């Protein structure tokens, strides 16, 4: 499935990500977290939900913050992954 949010293209079948037409290389945990955010675009995703849904890649809540920081760096500006007011993270769709 190909999902587009702004200039971000996520190909879930091929596990590929492009931003502004540029291919990005993500680690498995980074892709899993980004995929969950994109699938739930516009909805906050809690630390517990990341750990539950990305269990093979993430084992602790603290790892979620590290993966989000890595994703923000790799995706570059403008930042599309926000911090949700009630906790967790959100990507606007």
TrEMBL record:
What GO terms describe the biological role, i.e. biological process, of this protein?
phosphorelay signal transduction system; regulation of DNA-templated transcription
Keywords, alphabetical: DNA-binding
Query: Which residues mediate DNA binding here?
Result: 1-93
Q: Which GO terms describe its molecular function?
A: DNA binding
Q: Read off the SUPFAM superfamilies from this record.
A: C-terminal effector domain of the bipartite response regulators
Q: Does the keyword Membrane apply?
A: no
- Key word Signal present in the record? no
Q: Which residues form the OmpR/PhoB-type domain?
A: 1-93
Q: Which InterPro entries match?
A: OmpR/PhoB-type_DNA-bd (IPR001867), Sig_transdc_resp-reg_C-effctor (IPR016032), WH-like_DNA-bd_sf (IPR036388)
Name it. Two-component system, OmpR family, copper resistance phosphate regulon response regulator CusR
Source organism of the structure: Amycolatopsis xylanica
């Amino acid at each position: 499935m190909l999902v587009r949010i702004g200039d971000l293209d996520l190909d879930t079948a091929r596990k590929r990500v492009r931003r502004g037409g540029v291919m990005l290389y993500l680690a498995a945990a980074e892709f899993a977290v980004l995929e969950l955010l994109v699938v739930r675009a516009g909805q906050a995703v809690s630390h517990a939900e990341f750990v539950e849904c990305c269990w093979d890649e993430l084992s602790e809540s603290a790892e979620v913050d590290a993966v989000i920081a890595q994703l923000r760096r790799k995706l570059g500006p403008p930042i599309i992954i926000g911090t949700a007011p009630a906790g967790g993270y959100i990507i606007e769709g």
